[in-house]
Design brief:
- This protein has 858 residues and is α+β, with helices and mostly antiparallel strands.
- It folds into five domains: 274 residues, Rossmann fold (3-Layer(aba) Sandwich), CATH 3.40.50.200; 105 residues, Jelly Rolls; 111 residues, Sandwich (Jelly Rolls); 112 residues, Jelly Rolls (Sandwich), CATH 2.60.120.380; 167 residues, no CATH class.
- The chain contains 15 helices and 39 strands.
- A hairpin with a 3-residue loop joins strand 11 and strand 12.
Length: 858
C-alpha cells in the first residue's frame, strides 16, 4: 500500500449520543472545573476524570510529547500548555497544525482546565511538546514516526502520545520503541480504525494500545482489536479543541488514546518514580472490566478509570487469583505480564489463544538471582506438555498448535525467597505447507481450473512462487487476499519465454487499499507457463495468512464455425439448441432450418452471456434482403424468461442470424427453436380430445383462437364469450337472431364499448342470459358448467321439468340447474365425470365447443 502511516481518526459519526434500553448513561457530574463546554465532554465522566481531579489534575514536572500534525499555538485553550514544538515534516518551520488532527488530540489530553473558557483536557496544566510528523494530508512514513519518538526522547519526554497507526511492522520503529522503554518513557498509541488487528506502534508490547468505545461502553466497530489491545476509552463524539480557536467533536481511537496519555501523566504526578512498566500495569489493574471477565481481545483490560488509577497502590501481581488451572488468566500472544511467586504463592496459571500453528518465544525478567528460578510448563493443544526453566534475561521458544495453550509457572524448588517476574511473549507463524517456494526453481505447480491455496510470510523477505501451465488460449482470474490488514500483499504475474528460463513480468499488482486489501487480476492468457509471485509489500514476517484463488477459463469452442455467412449456415432441426460464441463485435452466426408444413415457430434463449446488445434476425430464402422478424433485446427477453420471437411460418427454408454489440468468447449463448405443426391454425390442439370439434366449429367461424396461434382449449370461458359462441351457433343453424341489442335494460358493468355488448344484450333479450342484482351483467366472469347447461336449454327451447332421480351425485334434484342438466344429459349433449357433474366448475373452451357441436349438430 502506498500510505505507511495515517492518523487513526475514524470516519466522523454525527449521530446524536442517545442511550436507552437500560444501557449505562454517562452524564456529566457536577463540574469539577469551570470550563464553559465541560457539560459537552461526556467522556470525562465516563472515565471518572472529575473524581480524579480532586486528587490530582495537572503535571507540569514532565514533558509530554504528542506526535501528530502539530497543534494550534493560537488556540486560547491550548497555548498556555504548549512548549515550542518540532516540525519533522518541514524542518525549520514551527509545529503549527495545518491539518487539525493534532489540535483535536492535544485538546483531549491537555486543554487548559478550570480557566472559565472552552473545554478541559484530562490534564488541566501540562508541558506538551508537539512534534509534527503528519503532513497536511495526514500521512507520514514509519521512518518519520521513529524519528519523532527519538526526538521526543532527546527532548526528555516521559510520556509520548501517538494517535496514528501503520499496519506495517518496522525495525526502525521497533528500535525507537525499545529505546523509549530503556529511557523510562511511557508510550501510548491508538489501536487504529481499520476494523482489523491492532496497528503499529500500538502493537508493540511496551506501548499501551488503546481502542475506542461508545458512551454505552460498546466497542466502535472501526476500532482495531486483537491480542495486543490493552485498554479502551471513549471514542465517539469526543468534544475537544479545533483549529482556529474553535470547538467540536471527533471520533475514533485517536480520540481515545490521549485520555490514557493524560491518565499516565496524572499517575506520574502522584508517583514520579514509577517505571513505564509500572505505569502500564497500574492502568491495567485499575481499568473497569468490560466484556468477558478479565482481559479480552475486544476491550483489553477494560475501560480507563482515571480516578481509580490515581488513588490505587501499584500491585505487582494484580492477576491473582490464578494459582489453579480453572482460574488461569489471559496471556495474549504479543504482550507482557507481571506476577509474583513466593513461599505462599508458588504457582501461576495462564492461558494463551494461539491463532495459527507456530512457535511462541518468552523473554523473562526475574528479580531472583537464581539462574533457574522458575519452571514453566506449556500445554499446547493436542501436543505433549513441555517444561522449560527461566532465569533473568532468558528467552525460550515453544512450538504450538492453533488453539488454546495453558501455561503453568512454578517457583523452582531451590528458591527460598519471593520474586517478581515479567514475561514478554512473541508469536511466530510456521512456514506454510507450500514451502520451500521462494524462487522460480522451487515454484509450486498449480493444477486445475479452479484452485485455492493458503500461504503466509513466516520469515523476513519471504515470497511465495507458484507456476501454472496454460494449454490453450483463455482467461485467468487471480485474487489474493489476507485474513488481516497487517498483511500488505504484492502480486506478480509473468510468463516464461518459450525455450528460455527468463520470465516476462507484468507490472506489479498493488491496487489494494486499507479498506479492501485484496489484489485482483483478470487477464487474457496464451499457451505457456506462467509464474505467480506473492510477497509482502514491506518484506516483513507477518503473523497472518493469505488465500490465493486462481480460476482459468479456456476460450469456448464454437463447433458451428465457420458459419459467419448464410451460405455457411449451420443446420438446425426442430427442438434443437443453437449455441456458440461471438468473439468479435463483427462476427455473426448463421443457422438454417426447414419448415415442412405450416407451423408456429418459437425461439427462446435459455442463456445469453451479455446483458444487452444481442441481436436476432430471421430470414426466408425467398428474400434475404429483409428480415421477417428481428429484435435487439434478446438478452433482456432471456433475463425475463420470455420468448424471443414466435410466429407462423409457411413451408420453406429459413435462416437465423445472431450477432452481439458486446463480444464474448468464454461462455456460449444458447437459443432454442421449436416447431409446432398447426391444426386449423392452432398449435395446441393436435392431440387434444376435442380436436375434431374445435376444427369443425372454427371452420364455421363459431369459435376463434388467439393471435399467438393457440386455441387454449382448457381455458375458462367468460359469460361474454359463451353468449357470443351460442348466438353464432344459433345463426349457423338458421335461427334468426338479432345482431344488435334494442332493449331498454342497462347494466352498469356492460358499457356499449364492451366488445360483446350486443351479443350479451341479445342473449339477455332472448331470455337465454340473466343478469345479477344491482344491475350487473358480469360479462368477464367465467361461466359455470351449470350456467352453460341452463343457457343451452333456454336457447334450444328444451322442455324442462323436475326429475325424480338424478344422474349425478353432486346435482341433487333440488339443484336450481338440475332440470337443464338432466335434460341435456338425456339427449347426450352433455356428460359428466363419471358419477359427478361438477356444476360449479368452470366450463372450458373445449367443453363448450363439444356441447355446442352436439346441441346444434354442427
Amino acid at each position: 500500500m502506498k500510505k505507511l502511516v495515517n492518523m487513526s481518526v475514524a470516519t466522523a459519526l454525527s449521530v446524536a449520543l442517545v442511550m436507552a434500553n437500560n444501557q449505562t448513561i454517562y452524564a456529566a457530574a457536577p463540574p469539577a472545573s469551570n470550563d464553559y463546554y465541560l457539560s459537552n465532554q461526556l467522556h470525562l465522566s465516563q472515565i471518572r476524570a472529575h473524581q480524579a481531579w480532586s486528587v490530582v489534575n495537572s503535571n507540569e514536572q514532565i514533558i509530554i510529547a504528542v506526535l501528530d500534525s502539530g497543534a494550534d499555538y493560537k488556540h486560547p485553550d491550548l497555548k498556555d500548555n504548549l512548549l515550542p514544538g518540532v516540525n519533522l515534516v518541514n524542518p525549520g518551520r514551527s509545529a503549527q497544525d495545518d491539518n487539525g488532527h493534532g489540535t483535536e488530540v492535544t485538546g483531549v489530553l491537555a486543554a487548559s482546565g478550570n480557566n472559565s473558557i472552552g473545554v478541559s483536557g484530562v490534564l488541566w496544566n501540562a508541558k506538551v511538546l508537539p512534534i509534527k510528523v503528519l503532513a497536511k494530508n495526514g500521512d507520514t512514513t514509519v521512518q518519520t514516526l521513529a524519528k519523532g519518538i527519538n526526538t521526543a526522547l532527546d527532548r526528555g519526554a516521559k510520556v509520548i502520545m501517538m494517535s496514528l497507526s501503520s499496519m506495517a511492522y518496522s525495525k526502525e520503529l521497533a528500535n525507537a520503541v525499545q529505546r523509549a522503554e530503556r529511557s523510562g518513557a511511557v508510550l501510548i498509541a491508538a489501536s487504529g480504525n481499520e476494523s482489523s488487528r491492532v496497528a503499529y506502534p500500538a502493537a508493540y508490547p511496551t506501548v499501551i494500545a488503546v481502542g475506542a468505545v461508545r458512551g454505552n461502553n460498546e466497542v466502535i466497530y472501526q476500532s482495531n482489536t486483537g491480542p495486543e489491545l490493552n485498554l479502551v476509552a471513549p471514542g465517539f463524539n469526543v468534544y475537544t479543541t479545533k483549529l482556529g480557536g474553535k470547538y467540536g467533536s471527533f471520533s475514533g481511537t485517536s480520540a481515545a488514546a490521549p485520555q490514557v496519555a493524560g491518565a499516565a501523566a496524572l499517575i506520574l504526578a502522584r508517583y514520579p518514580k514509577l517505571s513505564p512498566l509500572d505505569v502500564r500495569q497500574l492502568l491495567y489493574q485499575t481499568a473497569t472490566d468490560l466484556g468477558e471477565k478479565g482481559w479480552d481481545r475486544k476491550t483489553g483490560y477494560g475501560l480507563l478509570n482515571v480516578d481509580k488509577a490515581v488513588r490505587s497502590a501499584l500491585s505487582y501481581d494484580f492477576l491473582e487469583p490464578n494459582n489453579q488451572s480453572y482460574s488461569a488468566k489471559a496471556f495474549p500472544i504479543e504482550s507482557q505480564i507481571r506476577g509474583n511467586l513466593g513461599p505462599k504463592d508458588t504457582i501461576d496459571w495462564f492461558k494463551m489463544d494461539i491463532p495459527y500453528d507456530g512457535k511462541v518465544s518468552f523473554t523473562a525478567s526475574v528479580t531472583s538471582g537464581i539462574s533457574s528460578a522458575m519452571a514453566a510448563t506449556f500445554y499446547p493443544e493436542n501436543r505433549t506438555p513441555i517444561t522449560q526453566y527461566f532465569g533473568n534475561g532468558d528467552t525460550i521458544t515453544v512450538p504450538v498448535k492453533a488453539g488454546t495453550m495453558s501455561i503453568r509457572l512454578m517457583r523452582n524448588g531451590g528458591v527460598n525467597n519471593a520474586f517478581t517476574y515479567v514475561l514478554t511473549s512473541k508469536f511466530t507463524i510456521n512456514p506454510d505447507r507450500n514451502e520451500p517456494n521462494d524462487t522460480q526453481e522451487t515454484a509450486r505447480p498449480l493444477v486445475g481450473n479452479q484452485i485455492s491455496v493458503t500461504g503466509n510470510f513466516h520469515d523476513e523477505g519471504d515470497q511465495d512462487w507458484f507456476s501454472y501451465y496454460v494449454r490453450e488460449y483463455g482467461h485467468l482470474d487471480v485474487s489474493v487476499g489476507p485474513d488481516n490488514k497487517r498483511v500488505d500483499l504484492l502480486l506478480g504475474i509473468g510468463k516464461q519465454e518459450p525455450g528460455k528460463n527468463t520470465v516476462v513480468w507484468d507490472p506489479n499488482y498493488d491496487n489494494g487499499t486499507k479498506d479492501n486489501p485484496t489484489e485482483r487480476v483478470k487477464k487474457e492468457v496464451s499457451p505457456g507457463k506462467y509464474y505467480i509471485r506473492v510477497s509482502e509489500y514491506n518484506r516483513n514476517a507477518v503473523n497472518g495468512e493469505y488465500q490465493l484463488d486462481l480460476g482459468y477459463t479456456p476460450v469456448k469452442k464454437d463447433f458451428n464455425e465457420p458459419n459467419d455467412t448464410y451460405q455457411k449456415a449451420s443446420p438446425l432441426s426442430g427442438g434443437s439448441v443453437m449455441s456458440g460464441t461471438i468473439p468479435t463485435a463483427t462476427d455473426s452466426d448463421w443457422f438454417q432450418f426447414t419448415v415442412n408444413s405450416e407451423s408456429y415457430v418459437t425461439f427462446r434463449a435459455p442463456y445469453i452471456p451479455v446483458d444487452s446488445g444481442f441481436r436476432f434476425a430471421l430470414y426466408s430464402d425467398r428474400n434475404m434482403n429483409y428480415a421477417i422478424a428481428s429484435t435487439n433485446e434478446v438478452a433482456e427477453l432471456s433475463n425475463r424468461g420470455n420468448d424471443i420471437i414466435g410466429l407462423r411460418l409457411q413451408p420453406g427454408k429459413y435462416y437465423v442470424r445472431l450477432n452481439s454489440g458486446t463480444a464474448f468468447k468464454y461462455e456460449s449463448y444458447r437459443l432454442t427453436v421449436t416447431q409446432q405443426k398447426l391444426i386449423a391454425g392452432y398449435r395446441d390442439i393436435s392431440d387434444h380430445w376435442a380436436r375434431s370439434e374445435i376444427v369443425r366449429l372454427n371452420s364455421r367461424d363459431i369459435v376463434n383462437g388467439f393471435n399467438d396461434a393457440t386455441f387454449k382449449p382448457n381455458q375458462a370461458v367468460t359469460r361474454a364469450e359463451f353468449s357470443t359462441m351460442l348466438l353464432k351457433s344459433m345463426r349457423a343453424t338458421g335461427t334468426k337472431v338479432a345482431t344488435a341489442y334494442t332493449g331498454k335494460t342497462t347494466f352498469r358493468d356492460m358499457p356499449k364499448r364492451h366488445w360483446a355488448y350486443n351479443n350479451l344484450g341479445v342473449a339477455y333479450q332472448l331470455g337465454i342470459l340473466k343478469g345479477y342484482p344491482k344491475n350487473e351483467m358480469k360479462p368477464d366472469q367465467p361461466i359455470s358448467r351449470a350456467e352453460m347447461a341452463v343457457m343451452i336449454a333456454r336457447a334450444r327451447n328444451v322442455l324442462l321439468y323436475n326429475h325424480g332421480t338424478t344422474n349425478y351425485q353432486d346435482v341433487p334434484t333440488s339443484h336450481w340447474a338440475s332440470p337443464a342438466i338432466e335434460a341435456l344429459t338425456s339427449r347426450n349433449w352433455l356428460s359428466g365425470y363419471g358419477s359427478s357433474f361438477k356444476p360449479n366448475g368452470r366450463a372450458t373452451r373445449a367443453e363448450v365447443v363439444v356441447v355446442l357441436s352436439k346441441a346444434y349438430q354442427l
